[in-house]
């Protein structure tokens, strides 16, 4: 005999699953309509919206993870317009510096290379991470460094959006969309 109390729970679970699947499909459809596709950031389970006609390449060495999205050259380097994301878990064990110290050393070096510093963001909390940014011009190129540290794996994330200075306004909104990527989890490789 069918238990009537089970039916509302079953319907609730069914509706939740159907709604979640519909929302995911809607997100992918909306991204495609805006000229973007969702690309995985494997092997960590993250994702990014990238322009549908851009090239994608991943390159992972040891405990560092790297993904490159470029308008040209098959996602490799050199490229004129693109975004590179690098994730470094266990940064203190690898470098001897904590995440914040690592990021601020990076910023100091990039400021030395800059012909012009356009913006330095104050630190802000974003979930498990603390974030900041640095926007520069270095010779003929315009760069936006989006930097984060923290998380449960003592991780540093560096995202670099770049193009020629004269092309920046053409790609700035695209870089903003790509800057909203997600990093889900870094597989354990020892601590």
Provide a brief overview of the structure:
The protein is of the alpha+beta class and 191 residues long.
Task: Please explain how this structure is put together.
- The structure is a single chain.
- By secondary structure, the protein is an alpha+beta fold.
- Helix content is 31%, strand content 37%.
- The strands form two sheets. Strands 3, 4, 5, 6, 7, 8, 9 and 10 form an eight-stranded antiparallel beta sheet that branches. The chain has a two-stranded antiparallel ribbon with strand order 1-2.
- It is globular.
Radius of gyration: 20 Å
Name the quaternary structure: single chain
| Tally of DSSP β-strands | 10
Report how far the terminal alpha carbons are from each other: 53 Å
Question: What's the overall geometry?
Answer: globular
- Sheet with most strands: 8 strands, antiparallel
Order of helices and strands: HEEEEEHHEEEEEH
Secondary-structure class: alpha+beta
Specify the number of helices: 4
Key words describing this protein structure:
eight-stranded antiparallel sheet, globular, 31% helix, alpha+beta, 191 residues, two-stranded antiparallel ribbon, 37% strand
List the helices and strands and how they pair.
Layout: H1 6-33, E1 36-41, E2 46-51, E3 55-61, E4 64-70, E5 82-88, H2 91-95, H3 99-113, E6 116-120, E7 124-126, E8 129-138, E9 141-150, E10 155-164, H4 168-178
């Amino acid at each position: 005999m069918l238990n009537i109390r089970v039916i509302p729970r079953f319907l609730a679970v069914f509706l939740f699953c159907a709604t979640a699947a519909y929302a995911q499909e809607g997100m992918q459809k909306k991204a495609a309509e805006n000229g973007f596709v969702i690309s995985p950031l494997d092997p960590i389970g993250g994702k990014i919206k990238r322009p549908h006609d851009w090239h994608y390449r991943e390159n992972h060495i040891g405990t560092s993870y790297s993904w490159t999205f470029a308008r040209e050259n098959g996602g490799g380097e050199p490229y004129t317009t693109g975004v590179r994301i690098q994730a470094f878990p266990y940064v203190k064990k690898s470098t001897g510096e904590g995440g914040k110290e690592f990021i601020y050393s990076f910023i100091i070096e990039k400021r030395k290379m800059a012909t012009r510093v356009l913006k330095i963001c104050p630190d802000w909390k974003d979930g498990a991470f603390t974030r900041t940014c640095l926007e520069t011009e270095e010779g003929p190129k315009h760069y936006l460094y989006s930097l984060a540290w923290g998380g449960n794996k003592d991780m540093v994330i560096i995202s670099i959006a770049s193009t020629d200075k004269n092309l920046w306004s053409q790609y700035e909104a695209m870089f903003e969309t790509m800057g909203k990527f997600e990093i889900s989890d870094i597989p354990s490789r020892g601590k």
